[in-house]
């Protein structure tokens, strides 16, 4: 029987990845995710795995592409500026229909920005990020326990749908320590008949590639991929609803913003204001149905984000703009306080939107 | 019951370590908790702080903006956070390094010359643990239980020789009276 241990979020991801059978990690250090790479550097050599600090983020993601082609579980991690550098490789991995895990422990941007927490890579994570039509499955942990649990889930989903998945965390999630019950060793052995593992002179060559020079073929590939995405949107959208049963004001927030919003919901309820929270656990696929259903019942939405307002667009789309949606945000590494969220909900109540 | 603790001082005073120790103690006691450090360039010689929340219920936001307990280990920390303490909360002041008195009158104030006491113990880097000992004395909801167990968790095997001196520092703070 395992017991709870105290770990930083970054370390919990690393240990959970190892327990999920990941033996290949490629990365390049950057605050605030460096503990993840450091943990891998320490552990991987002891268990016959590979930790490699690449010469750059671009190199690291292409190493991920290579190992993924062989069917092995593989990951990389970085923070915002580093994840921008990886976008070309991520597009190739998506274009070659390969599973891989990319972790983004976000910091303030754009550019080099700062090193404090942020959620301003939402568009990049959910709308593509690199070139071409593609998506990642994007999970948004809101506790150290979820950092661990969602790592295993992200590997499983990536294998299941043959596409890259992403953990979209932020500086606080990476740096904070909480008790965590580490997942058991689980190596979900998915058959990977497409993997490049040597033919043994017994089968045709497997070819991993994202180049299709015949437009008819490339169109067909894209359409097939989007049929898969449609299925994922229908079946894999995850969210948590908190005090939503009779809510009149629906806060929508993920990650650290959801933690703060929960405090705000509890405080608002004590003031007699019926607030609730929908916490998207996947931001792609976005929990559209939960938002659409809420739009039938609530008076207004409040999107709480550590960005200038990115997820708010998905809330407006999913709710069909049937109800007002306000934005409560801080950026640049600043974090909204529960009081700021409360104030925003009260403003909506007063009709100041 | 939820206790929000903010520990603040210079980088190198063991602010994060003291917080980690409190976190492990809470873990052993089956409490819910979070530990969130300030991170980044300010840790190198500048101000460092860490938020520790200990609760019977799941912890919401891990950021302590209105502490029930403030451990001020230098003047800039007291200046910065004095006003944030909730009315009726408690401030611990390292009176070796902080000459001024606390201005607020609606909070409990505990002055303890942690840095001097630690020096007298021949453990000049353990002012943090002296202050933690005092905190155990004054804040009954946290108390002195499970201290040795928590110390074993927070002191790595490599540094096991530092166990006794940490324990002495905690006891020194616990037994201190003005």
Overall description:
The complex is a heterodimer of chains A (353) and B (178). By secondary structure, chain A is α/β, with parallel strands linked by helices. Chain A has two domains: 5-199 and 222-235, Thiamin diphosphate (ThDP)-binding fold, Pyr/PP domains (Rossmann fold, 3-Layer(aba) Sandwich); 239-349, Rossmann fold (3-Layer(aba) Sandwich). In chain A, 41% of the residues lie in helices and 19% in strands. Chain A has a seven-stranded mixed beta sheet with strand order 3-2-4-5-7-6-12, with helices on both faces. Chain B is α/β, with parallel strands linked by helices and 178 residues long. Chain B has a single domain, classed as 3-Layer(aba) Sandwich (Pyruvate-ferredoxin Oxidoreductase, domain 3), CATH 3.40.920. In chain B, 34% of the residues lie in helices and 21% in strands. Chain B has helices spanning 15-28, 75-81, 114-120, 127-138, 147-154, 163-175; strands spanning 2-10, 32-37, 47-55, 69-72, 90-94, 108-112. Chain B has a six-stranded mixed beta sheet with strand order 2-3-1-4-5-6, with helices on both faces. The longest helix of chain B has 14 residues, at 15-28. The termini of chain B are far apart. The model of chain B has no long low-confidence stretch (mean pLDDT 94). At the A-B interface, helix 8, strand 8 and helix 10 of A face helix 1 and strand 2 of B.
SSE map:
The complex is a heterodimer of chains A (353) and B (178).
Chain A: E1 5-8, H1 9-19, E2 24-27, H2 34-43, E3 50-53, H3 57-69, E4 74-78, H4 80-85, H5 87-95, E5 100-106, H6 122-126, E6 137-139, H7 144-161, E7 164-170, H8 171-175, E8 177-180, H9 215-235, E9 239-242, E10 249-252, H10 255-270, E11 275-280, E12 282-284, H11 288-297, E13 300-305, H12 311-318, E14 325-329, H13 338-349
Parallel strand pairs in A: 2-3, 2-4, 4-5, 5-7, 6-7, 10-11, 10-13, 13-14
Antiparallel strand pairs in A: 1-8, 6-12, 9-11
Chain B: E1 2-10, H1 15-28, E2 32-37, E3 47-55, E4 69-72, H2 75-81, E5 90-94, E6 108-112, H3 114-120, H4 127-138, H5 147-154, H6 163-175
Parallel strand pairs in B: 1-4, 4-5, 5-6
Antiparallel strand pairs in B: 1-3, 2-3
Helix pairs in contact in B: 1-5, 3-4, 4-6
